């Protein structure tokens, strides 16, 4: 089985290196191959998603992705900026289902800005549609405003859209995921304003007929943003579109106060996937050896479970991570008095040791 | 001066009644006239925004709005549902600038789900553009998907758009508001993905040249959602589009834990405005006399300040509200042990008395 390793920019290479160490220690015969992506792709090959990198990702059984982005690429035109790599990979690989767990580890309850009673034991799964919506809809651009009080001026515009089949397949993913959890799905939309999301609501309601053992609730996105702050533990699975999912999944991750712990999976229709930490490239701390590698290591665990059919190895890694937390080891982002502060490599080594 | 009073549905009439009491006690010669809106408009006249109500709102110098929406109207087609009234009023009256303060009163710090040190002293002003964006953009609807892998299927679609002049005027509102505060503006966009918001960023940057005494920062909407949870006190003024503003202003309001305290103003180009509490119609507690009228009373204060040129009367009301909080009076939504629980009317009476 072939795994593409795309470290990227900022802390990407350091954290990915720890996950690679862990993968290599499992005693499996994975073939790991690395390639440049993001700013590193642009620097080496003039494009954030170089041809060779895309070809490798397509040929591989799964992709482990670090993070992309760095201030030094801010001045580039949009098509060449690092984040285009991740948008390109999602679209080219058909990675329509983004699974982002927001879990609060009991040992890290203090890291949240929310009161412990509001977030302790938090365990939400956000499922974000990832290849549709206003992210890729056409037409888009800057044009002359055709009518109304601003006619004749320049205007920026984009197209939000969801086809029936796109909504159906992500709804199935959500209902099936809920069956392995608490059997409750909250579909987040803005059906009171948007045609796209009235249509979304109608289709999700229809798919739900096949899952009568799962409870379905519809919620407006503004209310969902409030409920995430007010009573996040009331959610089980949240399913939503690309744009709303971008906002809500980051808000939910931040509720835990330890975004450095949260992995993510982006899956295609055949369970091939791209796995990456929920946090970004943090260029300000890159190269200092202080970044938290656990989200990337846990992303590797998700990869073993969802794309490589190695659920036991995934369990091994997840248990090893719990063990190092129980041992009191903490990178600076999750450090609290009374625990032991360690760097990126030490944390990776500790997980390795805890694998047994 | 003529004020249109639109109580609406749910708790709308009860809370509006308290604000009217306060307005009448100021000793000014305001002419107050009421009309049905939302579900009440539909029930009485077959439309959520009846002709007469719209005419009254247009003729008035300012509008005091309660809240709209009730479960009993859920089955109506979208065009007749209560929330269409508020969308219609915004568009018809040209209310493009929505000002939503998120303030945490020291006495209510405990009501937040966030840790006191994260939110105590919170004072953010969110300025949401209210008549553009994907809320009103055309074309929109359900059509046959024209191309791509879902060609031939039905798809829901909407148009996001902002013309240059729309962005300019809301940017001016934000920079001018910042001058009366801490002189810092965070413009929230998604310039890395959306053409509309790359254009937004360019125009806001251009308008900023006229306000070199104000600091401008650009932030992606997903990051803004995170920073609101992580360190909300770092913000001063946030300016953003209609859709992002809908989500972020509700999240920010919920940070305070006392959304029953938060007023809002929606202004046109000549400082005529519609004023309403930030919370909804809460049909579950309607008619029980327990709703918190303070957000509506504080909305009346904003109305006096922004539309009626009566800043001193606005101060009087705001001071009266602070006084009743200091006296320990609390409606159930903000009640804590050691304070005195009161109902809607008692709270209104207490403010009246505190006016002096
Ligand atoms: C970098 C950006 C294009 C991307 C997105 O908006 O999807 C990021 O925010 C994410 O959530 O992975
Ligand atoms: C009721 C709804 C149409 C409205 C909106 O989305 O603008 C509401 O959420 C608000 O923020 O006033």
Automatic annotation (TrEMBL), chains A, B:
Residues the entry annotates as binding NAD(+): 280-292
Residues annotated for Mg(2+) binding in this entry: 222, 246, 250
Cell compartment(s), UniProt: Cytoplasm
Co-factor remark: Binds 1 Mg(2+) or Mn(2+) ion per subunit.
Gene Ontology CC: one annotated term: cytosol
EC number: 1.1.1.85
UniProt-annotated site: Important for catalysis, residues: 135, 190
Sorted UniProt keywords: Amino-acid biosynthesis, Branched-chain amino acid biosynthesis, Cytoplasm, Leucine biosynthesis, Magnesium, Manganese, Metal-binding, NAD, Oxidoreductase
Domain Isopropylmalate dehydrogenase-like: residue ranges: 2-351
Pathway involvement of the protein, from the record: Amino-acid biosynthesis; L-leucine biosynthesis; L-leucine from 3-methyl-2-oxobutanoate: step 3/4
Binding, substrate: 90, 100, 128, 222
Chief site of localization: cytoplasm
One Gene Ontology MF term: NAD binding
GO biological process, one term: L-leucine biosynthetic process
Cofactor field: Mg(2+); Mn(2+)
Top EC class for this record: oxidoreductase
Catalytic activity: (2R,3S)-3-isopropylmalate + NAD(+) = 4-methyl-2-oxopentanoate + CO2 + NADH
Pfam families, A to Z: Iso_dh
Family: Belongs to the isocitrate and isopropylmalate dehydrogenases family. LeuB type 1 subfamily.
Function: Catalyzes the oxidation of 3-carboxy-2-hydroxy-4-methylpentanoate (3-isopropylmalate) to 3-carboxy-4-methyl-2-oxopentanoate. The product decarboxylates to 4-methyl-2 oxopentanoate.
Assembly behavior: Homodimer.
Entry-linked HAMAP family: LeuB_type1
Name of the molecule in the record: 3-isopropylmalate dehydrogenase
């Amino acid at each position: 089985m072939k795994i593409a390793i795309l470290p990227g920019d900022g802390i990407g290479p350091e954290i990915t290196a720890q996950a690679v160490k862990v993968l290599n220690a499992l005693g499996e015969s994975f073939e790991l191959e690395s390639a440049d992506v993001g700013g590193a792709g642009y620097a080496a090959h003039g494009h954030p998603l170089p041809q060779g990198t895309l070809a490798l990702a397509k040929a591989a059984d799964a992709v482990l992705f670090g993070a992309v982005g760095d201030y030094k690429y801010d001045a580039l035109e949009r098509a060449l900026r690092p984040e285009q790599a991740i948008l390109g990979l999602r679209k080219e690989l058909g990675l329509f289902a983004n699974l982002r767990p927001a879990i609060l580890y009991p040992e890290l309850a203090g890291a949240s800005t929310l009161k412990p009673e509001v977030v302790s034991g938090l365990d939400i799964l956000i499922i974000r549609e990832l290849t549709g919506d206003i992210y890729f809809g056409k037409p888009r651009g800057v044009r002359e405003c055709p009518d109304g009080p601003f006619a004749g001026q320049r205007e920026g515009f984009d197209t939000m859209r969801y086809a029936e089949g796109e909504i159906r397949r992500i709804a199935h993913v959500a209902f099936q995921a809920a069956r392995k959890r608490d059997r409750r799905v909250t579909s987040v939309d803005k059906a009171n304003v948007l045609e796209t999301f009235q249509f979304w609501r109608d289709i999700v309601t229809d798919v739900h007929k096949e899952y009568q053992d799962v409870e379905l609730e519809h919620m407006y996105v503004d209310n969902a943003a409030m409920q995430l702050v007010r009573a996040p533990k009331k959610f089980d699975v949240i399913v939503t579109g690309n744009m709303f999912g971008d906002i809500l999944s980051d808000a939910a991750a931040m509720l835990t106060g330890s975004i450095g712990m949260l992995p993510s999976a982006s899956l295609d229709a055949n369970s091939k996937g791209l796995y990456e930490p929920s946090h970004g490239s943090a260029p300000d701390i890159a190269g200092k050896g202080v970044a938290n590698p656990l989200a990337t290591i846990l992303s590797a665990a998700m990869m073993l479970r969802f794309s490589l059919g190695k659920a036991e190895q995934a369990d091994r890694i997840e248990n090893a991570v719990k063990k190092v937390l129980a041992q009191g080891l903490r990178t600076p982002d999750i450090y609290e008095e009374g625990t032991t502060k360690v760097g990126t490599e030490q944390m990776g080594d500790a997980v390795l040791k805890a694998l047994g």
